[in-house]
Amino acid sequence: MKIQLSDYFNYKKLLRFTLPSIVMMVFTSIYGVVDGLFVSNIVGSTSFAAVNFIMPVLMILGAVGFMFGTGGSALVAKTMGQGEGEKAKRLFSLIVYTTAISGAIIAVIAFILMRPIASLLGAEGNMLEACVIYGRIITVALPFYMLQFLFQSFFITAEKPTLGLIVTVIAGVTNMVLDALFMAGFGWGLVGAAVATALSQVVGGIIPIFYFIFVRNGVLSLTKTKFDGRAIGAACINGSSELMSNIAMSLVSMVYNVQLLNYAGENGISAYGVLMYVNFVFISVFIGYSVGASPVIGYHYGADNSAELKSLLKKSLLIIGSASVLMFIIAELLAVPVAAIFVGYDIELYEMTVTAFRISSFTFIFAGIAIFGSSFFTALNNGLISAVISFLRTLVFQIGAVLLFSYLWGLDGIWLSIVAAEVMAVIITIIFLITNKRKYKY
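RESULT FIELD:
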């Protein structure tokens, strides 16, 4: 039976509705992991370090699509909750077109500036060349990458979360198959990895466009629209927390890379790369749930249904809390086998990665609450609070912690700083939830 945004959501229905989003985000992370696995084992540690070094820059560029997706879907869901279906379609179309044009402009600028950016961050010699090659190839597909992020949110708002999952799986399988073909089969090395990723992003961005053009009987479809600066501004402000979160995470990764380069050289960056790949998979469970639940929360907020809003918050916190404990246990169990798979060819790097894993896995106990809290306020169309939570969690706390802890405890302090930042983010999130309870009637 089809689940609609206007339904009452018990635990079973809430999990059924958000599950495709969770799987979609996890699968997106997994095919990124496979990409890194091929690079590390086929091309070598220098290229693997280069990919991890330039990846934060590419994530910042793609985050614009995530901003339009999360902020725009919250606006569209609220409009649907107010009973204005045709206006919701026009707003959806405007946001899609704006994202595509923005992506093309950003791609051209990024392609030109890729070398000076990589050099400014500290890449030199062979690693610099590898960063430029990989980064420039990926930026060619940037508009589609941004649209892929955008449609991951809007498929849920369109009450088609399973279709969003299918598109993500197709894109992911494309990436993995082409990785094997281009790198292992054709021997293209790092170029093969970049081309495979770029082509998978084209697939993930273009399939939804055809769907929303030709399927006209759905909740959302692409139609004629006109420019509305106020709506675009509202979508940007709404999604600013997700943009800030992605930019901040990328900036933090750059700071970590610089610190690790000082304390442990290229091995430190490679160990952190393994950590981040696995972190992406685990954190994507929280992100997937938050993205999946956000349109439901936005709809009932727009419909002024405070009882359902309160119920959704309570159920979500219990689901997130239970998943957090489970993921911590799994992470501890996976430390040795995951390190062996990625960097087992280098005993020093392997031991460093296991230690990093053991310490940083405590992150998963705390991360989910702050991620959901930020998404919850985005759904309530309060981009400011959402942005503050994301800004403090992903930038202020993490950079402050890594600089202080690395000074006090060296390399182990870098791994521990990730955990400390998440603890502080949970405290801030709880304060915001308590102080805004009366305003939003949850």
